[in-house]
């Protein structure tokens, strides 16, 4: 298994440079196609303006402003990844909004890189809504990359958040190309008894699976902790500098609460300083 097609959401340059460099590094290591997509949001803007009372219809200048901004964003992506050595590459420009287009485009790629949720209270902000929608609806693995991360090369010290669940298992499978390149990973087991009987059993089974793929693994079995503190524990492990990638499923609460990124998922995505690879 390898990533044959990688898609990057191109957005504001000040937020996306680390994302571009990391995507380029993975694409070069995998020898795969890299595509950047910029979304002007013009269609949604037109619809909203048309539906709002007392607002004049959108004119050519408004439309051109949105599309020109998206074009500049895409040009910045192209310059960044070419400077990193990625040639050839593909660029896409759409007038759809990111929240509508990315889940559809994700059907045709093996890995999607997007930006980070910037604040856990920003439930109505575009970045929060975008991340929430992508994590729920994208059929491919999603890597959330903090704008301030120092990780701009292929991760070599991954940390797996393991609870034995189907979501965690899918995330591990989705990360296999990166885990194999790392060669050695750390897995921390939280409440695996819910799915696997015991921490020891869950850790042993995961180690056996990863070893079959040529991956050495260190299993950490911390003392049982309330679900509300698991996210902080993961962030603490990543913040030590010992890890440069978190691999986790969308787990921690009921399906209904996860629809608003409740619990572990929200905590990690809002506070992480390293990329997070997840799969719903």
Work out the radius of gyration.
19 Å
**Count of domain modules:** 2
* Shape by Cα distribution: globular
- Terminal CA distance reads 19 Å
| Proportion of beta-strand residues | 15-25%
User: How much helix is in the residues?
Assistant: 40-55%
Q: What kind of sheet is the major sheet?
A: 10 strands, mixed
Average pLDDT reading: 84
| CATH homology-level superfamily of the largest domain | HUPs
CATH class of the largest domain: Alpha Beta
Main sheet: strand order? 3-2-1-4-5-10-9-6-7-8
CATH architecture of the largest domain: 3-Layer(aba) Sandwich
Structural class: alpha/beta
Textual characterization of the structure:
This protein has 280 residues and is an alpha/beta fold. The protein folds into 2 domains: 5-145, HUPs (Rossmann fold, 3-Layer(aba) Sandwich); 158-279, Rossmann fold (3-Layer(aba) Sandwich). The protein contains 12 helices and 10 strands. The chain has a 10-stranded mixed β-sheet, with helices on both faces. α1 (13-30) links the parallel β1 and β2 (33-39). Residues 119-125 and 252-261 have low confidence and may be disordered. Belongs to the universal stress protein A family. This is Nucleotide-binding universal stress UspA family protein. InterPro entries: Universal_stress_UspA, UspA.
What key attributes describe this structure?
46% helix, 280 residues, Nucleotide-binding universal stress UspA family protein, ten-stranded mixed beta sheet, 12 helices, Rossmann fold, globular, alpha/beta
